[in-house]
Design a protein that fits this description.
By secondary structure, this protein is an alpha/beta fold. Helices cover about 40% and strands about 20% of the residues. It has 2 domains: about 160 residues, 3-Layer(aba) Sandwich (D-Maltodextrin-Binding Protein, domain 2), CATH 3.40.190; about 140 residues, Bacterial extracellular solute-binding protein, family 7 (D-Maltodextrin-Binding Protein, domain 2, 3-Layer(aba) Sandwich). Strands 1, 2, 3, 4, 7, 8 and 9 form a 7-stranded mixed β-sheet that branches. A two-stranded parallel ribbon has the order 5-6. Strand 1, helix 2 and strand 2 form a beta-alpha-beta unit.
């Protein structure tokens, strides 16, 4: 047994010594101690099978990570699906408004990453998407009076990402006002009452005592607005042939664990923070979001194949969903 362990350790050391080092620029909203970075450490071990030694540069802001990637200080980027849209529209569309409704649908999608019809849309000439680490559904967080109807959003200030036309269109369509935020300053602006409504995944707000730090009226509405994930994009010429396919295989194998982790984060939020909309109001809002999203499918902003694929996966998960009824 001792001899076997020594042989395994020697093999691992040999692989590391022979591996070519590649650097990834990484943004994790919770920095180096976050769960995104922990998942990347597992991917780093997996990449050694392709003789690739991954090195991670952790950035405090997403824009800093993107700028370093643009300057070719790293050959890989880990950033949100919203802001990696510019490198791969197919995977960027996973952040589409009202598209991926829950972790179950996200899990099924991850299991398809090595399917030929999906994989070919992740590979471009200059950039290749090799995976998606789920962060979870973005929910509305408010620290003002309870919202029961979509019409009550009129005149309210809602935080959205810059350079995201669908989010802007959705906010304007309900008569609300946009406040531009990014992942590094959104919570601070919300705490400072610079906006009325913040949309965020539970992962981002778990470190906080919401009522103590944001006010006793703070509530999180149990209604999905978009799905947040950290996409991994590489410059394929820097990697061995087949590397992207191999890494996507890691996501297929770990799809259940990745989405189960996201579900645990959401379940960890105490029940008294959650608020519900009526079924009638949920259906009205879903129909409204779908209408806005379809406009961006038709004008080419969202990837039409991805939207149709997710719709089919959603119908498998929830046949009673409004778009699934015949």
């Amino acid at each position: 047994m001792k001899k076997i362990i020594c042989t395994m350790l020697f093999g691992l050391i040999s692989s590391v010594s022979q591996a070519a080092t590649q650097s990834w620029c990484v943004f994790d909203p919770l920095n180096a101690q976050g769960e995104i970075v922990r998942s990347l450490k597992d991917i780093r071990l997996y990449a050694l099978q392709d003789q690739v030694q991954l090195k991670f540069q952790i950035f405090n802001t997403e824009q800093a990570a993107i700028q370093a990637f643009e300057k070719k200080q790293c050959s890989g980027l880990v950033a949100s699906n919203f802001n990696t849209y510019r490198y791969n529209k197919f995977m960027g569309t996973t952040g589409g408004i009202g598209l991926i409704p829950n972790n179950q649908v996200a899990r099924i999608f991850l299991q398809l990453l090595n399917h030929p019809n999906v994989e070919k849309r992740m590979i471009g000439t200059d950039f290749e998407a090799v995976g998606m680490i789920p962060v979870g559904t973005a929910y509305m967080m408010l620290n003002l009076e309870k919202i029961n109807k979509m019409t009550q959003l009129k005149g309210k200030s809602i935080g959205i990402l810059a350079n995201n036309p669908p989010q802007l269109a959705l906010v304007q369509s309900v008569g609300a006002r946009p406040t531009y935020v990014d992942f590094s300053n959104a919570l601070d602006l919300f705490k400072q009452n610079k906006m009325d409504v913040l949309t965020a995944p539970i992962y981002r707000i778990l470190p906080y005592d919401l009522k103590k730090e944001f006010g006793s009226a703070t509530q999180v509405y149990n209604f999905p607005l978009s799905y947040v994930a950290m996409n991994i994009v590489i410059r394929p010429e820097s990697y061995p042939k087949g590397f992207g396919h191999h890494i996507r295989g890691w996501f297929v194998k770990n799809s259940t664990a990745l989405t189960a982790q996201t579900t645990r984060w959401e379940n960890h939020l105490p029940a008294y923070y959650w608020a519900d909309l009526s079924e009638y109001e949920k259906q009205n809002y879903e129909a409204h979001v779908n209408k806005v999203r379809q406009r961006f499918v038709e004008n080419g902003y969202y990837d039409a194949y991805l939207v149709e694929l997710i719709k089919r996966l959603r119908c498998l998960d929830d046949p009673q969903y409004v778009e699934c009824r015949k």
